[in-house]
Write a structure and sequence with these properties.
The radius of gyration is 31 Å and the shape is elongated. It has a domain at 8-59 and 98-140. β4 (77-80) and β5 form a beta hairpin. It is of the alpha+beta class. The protein contains seven helices and six strands; from the N terminus they run αββααβαβββααα. The protein is 51% helix and 12% strand.
Length: 187
């Protein structure tokens, strides 16, 4: 099985932040695993003991609303405060609140789905989460260094503002020697 089944960038674009946790939607995971969302949730439902609250959870209406504003919604759907409902032609869209999976829940999905593709996809998904975590740690380090430079620069600004940039009277009134003499020294 190839390690690059799904580009890491594509996986990372599907990672959302809900309640301060990085999670992936059940529909996105189902697409990656090559199963329907219904079957993925059915397999999870049969093995709920493997998915505690910090591995997977169902979004509340408020969390769903926030997520819809982040990612968009299909034209055949509407979200009233209670949940998502279909409007218009009556097909497509989500009928239930989404189940989301944290990094640990994504890793656990491979054992529930039990296929070679599921194992390979889970490895790719966990790598994407790890790479994202490392990237965020790098950004934190850069932010700390940037704040240190800003403090240092503020100190330099204060020091340079104390220096007078106007030339003193001695600089302008000095007599100039118009004739320069060249002196040659023999070595």
């Amino acid at each position: 099985m190839r390690n690059d089944l799904i580009p890491i960038a594509k996986i990372q674009s599907r990672i959302h932040v809900v309640c301060g946790k990085r999670v992936m939607l059940d529909a996105d995971l189902a697409r990656f695993y090559g199963v329907t969302t219904f079957n993925l949730n059915k397999a999870v439902g049969r093995n709920l003991d493997r998915f505690p609250e910090n591995f997977a959870f169902v979004l509340t209406p408020e969390e769903m609303r926030n997520l819809i504003f982040q990612s968009g919604i299909s034209s055949s759907q509407a979200f009233d405060g209670e949940g998502i409902r279909n409007v218009g032609r009556g097909y497509g869209g989500t009928r239930k609140p989404a189940r989301v999976f944290t990094e640990q829940g994504v890793a656990m999905l491979a054992s529930v789905l039990r296929s070679a593709r599921a194992v390979a996809i889970s490895v790719a998904l966990v790598r994407a989460f790890v790479q994202l975590r490392e990237l965020l740690a790098t950004h934190r380090e850069l932010a700390v260094k940037l704040s240190q430079l800003e403090r240092k620069l503020a100190g330099h600004d204060h020091a340079t503002s104390a220096i007078s940039l106007r030339p003193s009277a001695n600089c302008w009134n000095r007599p100039r020697n118009r004739r320069r003499r060249w002196v040659f020294i023999r070595c």
